[in-house]
């Protein structure tokens, strides 16, 4: 179990001392995933994490329930056993060491109130909305920091923390392991550890690293290894270093999150990564953002460039239609409509973006948006659970 804290931790020269569930994991400058205070108590029920992230002036939803979340959902929805593929965690040491400004500085969350998250916060929200299982991931800015923070150490800590959640809450959580993609050697080592030791379900990558997008030639060894393992790769938007401060009075995430995802997808498409890594299953969030609307413009490029065309033997539309897309913050007519002109329901996954979803985009409201869209009963079941079961064997089987 992840212990409940009753005292402040003691920091030694190598971080916080202690262990998770009696198992000590190597000490790091960020603390071990289980590094605990000297006095802890263990709950007989599923407990909160080592330490819940402290309240911080900075998040729009605070990970806490909104009034909409608290509405009772219909019994038949609770029985649907939905899988949420876009569900974030905030490991305590990550929060402490990366810091509020890095985590929230590019969004409007930092001006909107306190942020709090524990595993029980997630479980409670899931239970209110019929979500049986959630795939955890680290949101932007991810775990690559090219300015002195030890990215390998904090990546390992976050992945150990996520793996402990899967053990403490069996069946409730899976994990997309973090990778510091710009550190290719570090990423290759972490892939081996995450899949072979932690039994990760896939990996989570940011849409850009510094001023490079994932289709860059430098990242080819990482994607080739993920393809060899037939991995699931979930992308999460961030703000590229090349695109900061463009509109100074608007939070960067408002524009850059959606369009950095477009850049990431197009870079993967026209570098030939999608076609070369045909055994990898890629998930893009937020109904593909602008990609479904821009699909004709994106695909038209190959008609004028033989080099790009040669990297896509099946054509660009084929590759776009192979991808999976979640509906986090996007279960609305203006976003679902274009997406469903691009793919069929078998490529759509439920995602909540918990606990970062804005007011007006809660778990319940995303479900309501799906139900109002006009999907058939079989399509809804596929979006809610069936499609994710195909990708994530952890959750497949009798239910």
Number of domains: 2
Describe the sheet with the most strands. Answer: 8 strands, parallel
Considering DSSP H and I runs of 4 or more, what fraction of the residues is helical? 25-40%
The number of helical segments is: 15
Strand-residue fraction?
5-15%
What class, by secondary structure content? Answer: alpha/beta
Global geometry: globular
Rounded mean pLDDT score: 81
What does this structure look like?
The two termini are 24 Å apart. The protein has 399 residues and is of the alpha/beta class. Helix 7 (220-228) links the parallel strand 8 and strand 9 (232-236). It has helices at 75-78, 92-98, 100-104, 119-128, 151-168, 184-196, 220-228, 252-270, 273-276, 291-300, 306-310, 316-322, 333-342, 363-372, 377-391; strands at 4-5, 11-12, 15-16, 40-41, 82-88, 131-137, 173-178, 202-206, 232-236, 281-284, 324-326, 348-349. The longest helix is centred in the middle third of the chain and has 19 residues, at 252-270. It contains 15 helices and 12 strands. It folds into 2 domains: 1-51, no CATH class; 52-395, Metal-dependent hydrolases (TIM Barrel). The chain has an 8-stranded parallel β-sheet. Strands 1-4 form a two-stranded antiparallel sheet.
Main attributes?
alpha/beta, disordered N terminus, 37% helix, globular, TIM Barrel, 2 domains, 399 residues, 8-stranded parallel sheet
């Amino acid at each position: 179990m992840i212990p409940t804290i009753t005292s402040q931790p003691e920091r030694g020269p190598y971080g916080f001392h202690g262990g998770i569930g009696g198992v000590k994991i190597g000490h790091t400058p960020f603390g071990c995933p289980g590094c605990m205070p000297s006095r802890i108590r263990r709950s007989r029920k599923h407990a909160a994490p080592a330490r819940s992230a402290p309240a911080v002036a900075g998040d729009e939803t605070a990970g806490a329930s909104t009034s909409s979340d608290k509405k009772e959902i219909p019994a038949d929805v609770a029985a649907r056993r939905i899988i949420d593929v876009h569900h974030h965690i905030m490991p305590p040491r990550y929060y402490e060491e990366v810091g509020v400004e890095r985590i929230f500085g590019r969004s409007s969350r930092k001006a909107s109130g306190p942020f709090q998250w524990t595993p029980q916060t997630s479980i409670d929200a899931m239970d209110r909305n019929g979500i049986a299982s959630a795939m955890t991931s680290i949101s932007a800015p991810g775990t690559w920091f090219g300015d002195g923070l030890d990215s390998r150490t904090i990546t390992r800590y976050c992945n150990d923390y996520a793996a402990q959640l899967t053990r403490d809450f069996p069946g409730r959580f899976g994990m997309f392991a973090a990778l510091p993609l710009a550190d290719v050697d570090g990423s290759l080592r972490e892939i081996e550890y995450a899949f072979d030791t932690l039994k990760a379900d896939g990996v989570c990558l940011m849409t850009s690293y510094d001023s490079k997008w994932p289709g860059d030639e430098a990242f080819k060894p990482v994607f080739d290894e993920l393809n060899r393992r037939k991995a699931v790769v979930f992308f999460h938007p961030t703000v590229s270093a090349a695109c900061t401060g463009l509109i100074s009075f608007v939070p960067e995430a408002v524009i850059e999150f959606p369009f950095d995802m477009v850049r990431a997808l197009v870079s993967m498409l026209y570098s030939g990564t999608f076609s070369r890594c045909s055994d990898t299953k890629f998930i893009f969030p937020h109904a593909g953002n602008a990609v479904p609307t821009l699909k004709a413009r994106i695909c038209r490029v190959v008609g004028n460039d033989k080099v790009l065309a040669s990297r896509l033997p099946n054509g660009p539309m084929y590759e776009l239609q192979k991808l999976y897309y979640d509906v986090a913050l996007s279960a609305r007519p203006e976003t679902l409509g274009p997406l469903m002109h691009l793919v069929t329901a078998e490529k759509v996954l439920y995602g909540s973006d918990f606990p970062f979803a804005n007011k007006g985009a809660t778990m319940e409201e995303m479900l309501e948006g799906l139900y109002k869209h006009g999907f058939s009963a079989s399509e809804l079941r596929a979006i809610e659970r069936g499609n994710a079961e195909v990708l994530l064997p952890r959750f497949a089987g009798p239910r």
